[in-house]
Every structure is written in structure tokens, then in C-alpha cells.
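Course exercise 7: structure representation. Students receive a sequence record and must write out the corresponding structure in C-alpha cell form. The form below is the worked example handed out in class, using Fatty acid CoA ligase family protein (561 residues). Read each field label carefully; the graders check that inputs and outputs are placed in the correct fields and that the protein name is recorded exactly as given.

STUDENT ID: A-19
EXERCISE PROTEIN: Fatty acid CoA ligase family protein
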Amino acid sequence: MTPGGHELPLATPNNLCEHLKTAALTRPDDLAVARQLANGEFEELTLAQLERLSDRIALALREQGIVGGMKAVLMVTPGLEFFALTFALFKAGIIPVMVDPGMGTANLKTCLAKARPDAFIGIPKAQLARRLLGWGKETVQKVVTVGGSGIWGGKSLKRLLADVSVDAVYQPQLPAEDQLCAILYTSGSTGEPKGVEYTHTMFNAQIQSLKQDYGIKPGERDLATFPLFALFGPALGMASIIPDMDASRPITADPEVLLRAVERYRCTNLFLNPALLAKLANYPGNEQEEASIRTRLASVQRVISAGAPADIGQITRLRKLLADGVEVLNSYGATEALPVSMFPSSQLASTAPQTDTGGGICVGYPVAAEIRIARIDNGTIGNVKDAEWLSEGQIGEIWVKGAVASAAYYDNPTATSKAKVADGTEFWHRMGDVGYLDSKGRLWMCGRMGHRVCGAEKTWFTLPCERIFNTHPGVSRTALVGVEIEGSITPVLCVELAAGIDADTVFSQLATLSQEYSHTLGINRFIQHDGFPMDVRHNAKIFREKLAQWAQKRWQKAWTA
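STUDENT ANSWER:
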């Protein structure tokens, strides 16, 4: 029984929204979501209000003919409606299809064609794009507009809710634990985006890890800068504070806006991708400002960084702005499996020398998955018996197994068979990354498997090689790519130089530096680049495929000159 005399629901792993129901009954007046408006003010929902609103939306959707088993595209900006709609869809057994807008319109249209949605729920801007670009035109039968009228077809959410009692209660659907409950398309760093299938069991495993491995407790408040992670907030009893920023382009966020949100709500948790982490770390202009920001961030108990490896220097700078003992937790994983490992910032100093000399980036200890390293194989591996496990310190492909890993890509058996390996009744997920395990069981990242440069007699891995050259004071950033020269794949280093640096002088020094380490031997061709093409979401992943094409054209032009 709750303090108010309510009967608690039975604990069940079958539906993510049951976590919200429990939190709403035990702490009804606690904050669930707060969204910062353009004028700096905030709108809020308590846990009880979010529970009731999501119930009403589930009933309204049912009246509109959007029911369990259907797939519904959800294109709504992070805010109160986004949270209420998502939990409503889960309650109703409707499968939300979430597509990262950062992937671009062409990929987005392809993703929606593959998902074959029955309904489209979106803001007016998304509805306009749907009409103009033909998103889901083959299958979408039901349309709901959020934050606008129904002129785009269907009805507005506001109109639908007007016909549902404010006290209406919806009994959530309890699907089988392995039943599909969401399809997530994210802007991957390589290839065409694939729809990752999520089940409630997978969501629950992630929630459990956030509780046990990250120590998140009910009553906390999170600066929610990434929509998917933000959804875990109410399920954890943690309020999600949504700052006024474009979640699809975090690099454009204003650090001052983030700090105001943290300060107003005394946020205990910050979820930052590398771009946002760097924004905050570099915000203070002097020691006086640094002291002021440290005061404003005094409530923060942890920082979770994910999406791409954060720069060690940026993490060090950010730690100076946090209270003593507060960790920056560098998390490794992917949409298909998250979290996999985690490494606290307090231990970075012990691994930095190995990273600087080409040992890769330490991403820490396994948290919610078993990790093994397999010999690199570009083909499909049907059974784990056909894999060759590598020993400690040997670089190979990173495989993970656990409840936090998705079992399949939606309607993509080719991609599924490539990424999943049967192990009895379980499976291993091939991360597509290369790395190794050390004597302490820690995982070290050495880059994407598809980005390694394979010569006739040697293979060069991106992260270990690039770090060697990145330590040069005249270098801002490097990217290793393979270029075909005289019929052979040859490593070429693309280099962003620091301002005012002479390229010829630096390249001569880099050529000498490459001879000092066994893993960089053979890298003796360098090209200056003014600004690498980067991913929109994290601004930390280099689009090496584009860079390799550019480098190939540069060398071909040089040969014919």
C-alpha cells in the first residue's frame, strides 16, 4: 500500500510503463518532466499527471483506431507531449517507430518505407514533410498532429483529448517479454540506418543497469539532452529536465541555457554526448568564471557520457567544474546494446599513457553484458562454435551478450544474420568495433572494424594510430583512411593542423614519429584537411567513408598532375 492507501501494482517485467505506474502511486507529486520554453520559463508534469495524461492519450488513440499491434511513427520534439505519447503507446501495445532526424531526409524516407507504419504522430513541421516528401504514404492510415490543428489530415491531439475524461484510466497491455515494443532508427556512423528492435525485457535490463551500475535513485533529476535516455527518467523515478536546445544538433546548444536548467532544478545527473561535454568544459573564460560554474554545478552527482568516446582532455577540464569526487562515467555501447561497459574519470590518468602511445581508448569494465573478443571475420558467422576467441591483449572484433542487446533488426534478415551469432538459446551481438581486453578485464576500443586499413602485409587500426599523431602540438586532429595507390591499399593520414602551423614541417615530423611505434610503421603519406566531415548527433564521429573518397581523389589528381 502507498501512503495514500493505493494498492501497488504487481511488479512485472512485461511493460516499461508499469515502472511509471508504480512511481506515480508511491510519489504522485514528485516531478516527472520539466521542459524549458524559449522564454526561459518551464512547463512541468508530476508523476501522477504524466500517468493520467498517458492514460488519456492511450484511450484517445484507441478511439481514433490506433490500437495495439500497429506501428506508429513518433516525430515529436522532446517535451511533455513526447513523454506522455511514448508511455501511452507502450500502454496501448502500439509500436513506436522513432527516427533520428539527424540522419537526413533521404535516409529518413528509406527508414519509414522499411518500417511500414500504420500511423504517423508528429508536430506540424513533421506532418508537412510527410506530405511533401511522401513519408510512409504507402502504409500510413491514421494521422495525429501534436501542437497544431488537424489540417494535415486526421485530428489534432488536443481535439482527441477533448473527448476523453480527465479521470479516465487505461489498463496497460502486458505483452510477451520477447514481443516487439519499439523500433529505433538512429543516425549510425556507417551504412544505411537499420531499425533496432526493442522489447520491454531489453528496456527493463537497461533500467536495472542504470540503477545498479550507475547508482541512479528515485528522486534524482536529470539534465535530459538525449530523448531515448530521457525516457528512462520517469521509469527510474528520476525527473527529466529538458533544456531549450535542438536535440538533433546538440553541438548548437548554448552552455548558459544548460547551466540555468541545472541550477534551477538542482540536477543530480547530466547526460552529455562528447559535443555537449566539450561545450560545458570549455565554457569558462577565466578562473573566476570557473569558480562560478563550479557553484552552479554543485548539485551534480554524476555525468554520463555516451555516443562516442569523449576526449580525455575535455573530461579533465569538465571534472574541474564539478564537486570533488564527482565522476564522469564514459559509457560504451550502441543502440543495439547499451550499456556494455563503463569507465570512471578518476581512473583515466592511469590509462592515459597507454592511450597516448597507441594502446587505444579504455572504455572500462563490463556492466550489463558479457564481452569477448573474436578474430576479425568480415563474413557471417552462424554459430558461436565457428568463432575464434582471442587472448588478452589481442585486437579483434568486440562481441557482447546480455539482456541489454537487441535480438534483431526490423525486417532486415541480412543485417540480423550478419550481426547476431547463435549461442544455444542465447545470442552474441557483433558490435562492429575492434578492441581488446586487458589483464584487468577492461575493454579497450581501437575503432570501427570497417575503418581499419588492411594492407597486403599489415593492418592499421584507426584509434591507436591516430592518437600517436594527435599528441603532436601542431596537430588538431587526424583521421586514418585507406587509399589505393599503384594497385595496393595504402594508409594515408588526413590531418587538421593547429592555426598558423606549416604543413610541410609538421608532416616531416609526423613521418619521423610514425617510425617510433610498430603499429604506425608504414604510415608516411599525409594530406592536410581543413575540417573533417562529422556526424550531426555527436560531432565526434568522423565520416571516414567520405574522407577516404576525398583522399583518393586528391592522390589521383596528384598522379595525373
